[in-house]
Amino acid sequence: MRVRVVHARTMPEAMRMLTEELGPNAVLLSSRRVAGGFQATGGLETDLPEEPLSPALPISAPGGFDLGPTEAELPRRAMRELSAGPGQKDGEAAALGFHGIPEELRTRLLGGPLEAMLSATLRFGRLPELGSRPLLLAGPPGAGKTLTTMKLAARHVLGGGEPPLIVNTDQQRPGAAEQLTGVAELLKAHLAQARNPAAALQAIALRPPGGAVLIDTSGMDPFDADQARLLLTLIATTRANVALVMPCGLDPAEASELGRAFRALGATHLVPTRLEATRRLGGIISAAAAADLVLSEGGASNLITEGLMALSPDWLAERLRRQTHAPPRASPSSPTSAAKPEEPRQNGLLRFEAVTQNGDPDR
Amino acid sequence: MSDAAAASLLPSGRIIAVASGKGGVGKTWLSITLSQALSRLGLQVLLVDADLGLANVDVQLGLQPERDLHAVLTGKLTLRQAVSRHAEGGFDVLAGRSGSGALAAMSPERVEQVNTLMRDSAAFWDVVILDLGAGLAPPTRRLAASADILLVVATDEPTSLTDAYAVLKLHATDKPGGDARLVVNQATDAAQGSRTAATLQRACATFLGREIPLSGVVRRDERVRDTIRRQTLLLTRHPNSNAAADVEALAAGLRLQTAFSMLSQSKREVV
């Protein structure tokens, strides 16, 4: 736009001057009386419309997602390439059938030593470290997300970490807030109630830099578009790592579809729960395999202090063969049986570490 | 879901870019004083020196920041680590890097990174003030378009009018329907400031078909020059000056009530 300010004794004279200066298309933008006459400001638009800015190419966020789990070590037993005898394989085939593992997956797992095949077929690893990103626990209703949240918070504090921020987005289940409140007070953890993703983000913003954040969510149906959209929004807004909390004992086909659905929403890790009360593990194994989720740690107790147990191919193979959640009985004729993997029991967080050690009976 | 979609869930009216087109109209001073005025309204304010080529917010504030926007963009620091607190003003400052060609010649992708940073800052601040550089370079245009509100500062000088008009015209192209508002600075008096605004508004209505509301008129005040020379703040040093009153009125009059009420709502939901 060109602008010209003129002064004249009369307005017609001022207009004439503007027309002479800017041409017949000049527009009077303003005028006023001044000493000795009038001041007029005219304008003329001459430029063509501006070209829009070129779109920016998407760039990856600094740091990006760091979801790679720590690879589980190959069990020593598997490394020895033990060849199982036909009797043992028959027993394992029966065991996998008992657990309801789908035929295709079962065939694959029976293709070699069970520990090795589990290690080769599934991904094992720990949950992402708290601190760099929030850890969001998602899953179907009643899976044990709140209990898992509390266990992780307790583990973090008892492990010497600063009390984490716990964000509760479960505003539907009666008692969810109360459950978390008591634990948060005990741990001196900060608890925020967030009704929507923006509120969750606000809460996270208040945490100390680098502070651990756990996000507990309400049980949801990933096949429901509105619920899925809400979870997606929460994940995108908080930029959280996502672990799917799923109870053992689900139908393998149902569990596989649930796993894939949550994977599509952003879940990368699987935390099976009710390990202490479920005999069949076909559901979680199917879900982990179908959705390529990292089998990380599992819940095997309703007690917060008992924490989560690390899952390993060795432990899982033994548990599949055992076909029960009941701990193996110590046999008087087998003095080494105490070294076998067993379910975690009453020793809390110390037990968590002990189970990790016990996961490999050869150690 | 994209980050942009996620960001759309956040309150709008939070990022305010201050632009002018022409240099020397008091844009940086206004950004600083507006930051202080908004903080006095109880808001957490972050002032970002987004004058990518000739950053000088730190100079006007008498700061000697060791951390700046460049460190954030190069991944050396997080946004929060790079921010300095201006205790007297009650707001936070993210310094630019004066004379940095690297910032001035930022690629569109890098500017988008800045935009993302500003969106992320919603977690820490109620309002972010972007002090944009003079001129119409693409990085400045992008930042202006990314803001929720664009405040265009103009004086009654014809060159200021044409440059402010150019900014508004580009903004109409870059962000059709965007929220752009006028601030007339260095006005002889309120009436003269209103006339200046009316001139620009008429041009925008005639040539762009766009109504640009006037957010405020800041009267010329010698005490402004005094505070700039002393590297201090007008609202602190001359709280009863005309210019101080005008900027406080501008801050109060900015139609951010909706955004603030949404923020307050969100915060109430947080125990």
TrEMBL record, chain B:
UniProt domain CobQ/CobB/MinD/ParA nucleotide binding: residue ranges: 16-230
Classification via Gene3D superfamilies: P-loop containing nucleotide triphosphate hydrolases
Name of a matching Pfam family: CbiA
Keyword ATP-binding annotated: yes
InterPro entries: CobQ/CobB/MinD/ParA_Nub-bd_dom, MinD_FleN, P-loop_NTPase, ParA/MinD_ATPase
UniProt source species: Muricoccus vinaceus
Keywords, in A-Z order: ATP-binding, Nucleotide-binding
The protein, known as: AAA family ATPase
Domain of life: Bacteria
Source organism phylogeny: Bacteria, Pseudomonadati, Pseudomonadota, Alphaproteobacteria, Acetobacterales
